[in-house]
Write a structure and sequence with these properties.
Immunoglobulin-like, binds 2-acetamido-2-deoxy-beta-D-glucopyranose, five-stranded mixed β-sheet, 265 residues, alpha+beta, 2 domains, six-stranded mixed β-sheet
Length: 265
């Protein structure tokens, strides 16, 4: 029982989330946008391509086409930063990155997941309103409605944005001119300023201005664990506590069990 539990604990705690691949191919890198993937025209954004593999070279693509954009850091650290400055609407689109190890032949990685970069201000601003109230208690739900001023006869998607978060937090297709976003099982960390926008999910990826901001306030229950513990941490703490209890029980048993065995051998 104990060795099994220990090896399970070690499996959970000792092995990190590192990508170990059996076939020797290079795992895909991750691509993120800073400060955000939704930006106004003329602003600057840094696209970061990251992989745990060191000593590789990176490539950035937009819609499959290789881009040559200034890179800030040499790729010895497994990180490349691509700077897109003074953004124009034509730079909106689907970006991916990949890396390769020089050799003969070069070995290249798989492409990262697609990052959708949106440049706002090309379609009229939508409005955002909240059903019921903006002050809620942890565990409750809030529904936000985003509405565009005119019905557009082209494919459109809505996105819900939260200030300080680099990616939209929800995407929804419209019902007529509007859509409802629901935020469920809220916790204190969901407190913040929300806005919405809509965009064309295909080229030329035109995007509206963001709506007005709505501040949502989520109050935690007194005495409830705050949002600081992730579920994974709670599981680890729980397993650690269980192990301590089992060890205490074994010690207790060893201490109080009869010193001689009943058979007398
Ligand atoms: C903790 O919060 C949940 C909702 O997230 C609530 O149902 C529960 O009653 C709270 N517990 C305490 C001890 O306040
Ligand atoms: C929301 O925005 C307002 C105005 O910028 C600011 O005063 C407020 O602190 C923000 N709320 C949160 C939770 O960040």
């Amino acid at each position: 029982m104990i060795p099994k539990l220990l090896s399970f604990l070690c499996f959970r705690l000792c092995v990190s989330q590192r990508d170990i691949r059996g076939d020797g191919s290079l795992p895909k890198p991750s691509l993120t946008a800073w400060p955000s993937s939704v930006l106004s025209a003329q602003s600057n954004v840094i696209l970061r391509c990251w992989t745990p593999t060191r000593g590789v070279d990176f490539i950035l693509r937009k819609g499959g086409t290789i881009l040559s954009v200034p890179k800030s850091r040499e790729s010895t650290e497994g990180l490349a930063e691509f700077h897109l400055n003074d953004l124009k609407g034509s730079q909106a689109g689907e970006y991916t990155c990949e890396y390769y190890r020089k050799g003969s032949p070069d070995i290249s990685s798989q492409r990262s997941d697609v990052l959708l970069l949106l440049v706002t201000g090309y379609l009229p601003k939508p409005s955002l309103r909240v059903y019921h109230q903006v002050k809620v208690t942890a565990g409750e739900k809030v529904t936000l409605q985003c509405q565009m001023p005119d019905r557009l006869f082209m494919p459109i998607m809505f996105a819900l944005l939260k200030a300080g978060t680099s990616l939209p937090i929800q995407y929804r297709s419209p019902t007529g001119r509007e859509t409802d976003f629901s935020l469920e099982d809220l916790t204190g960390s969901d407190t913040g300023n929300y806005s919405c926008m809509y965009y064309q999910p295909r080229a030329p990826f035109q995007a509206s201005d963001p709506s007005n901001q709505l501040e949502i306030l989520v109050t935690d229950w007194p005495g409830n664990a705050s949002g600081d513990y992730t579920q994974g941490n709670l599981i680890r703490l729980g397993l650690g506590a269980l192990l301590m209890v089992i060890m205490a029980a074994l010690l207790f048993e060893a201490w109080y069990s009869p010193k001689e065995s009943p058979s007398g051998s």
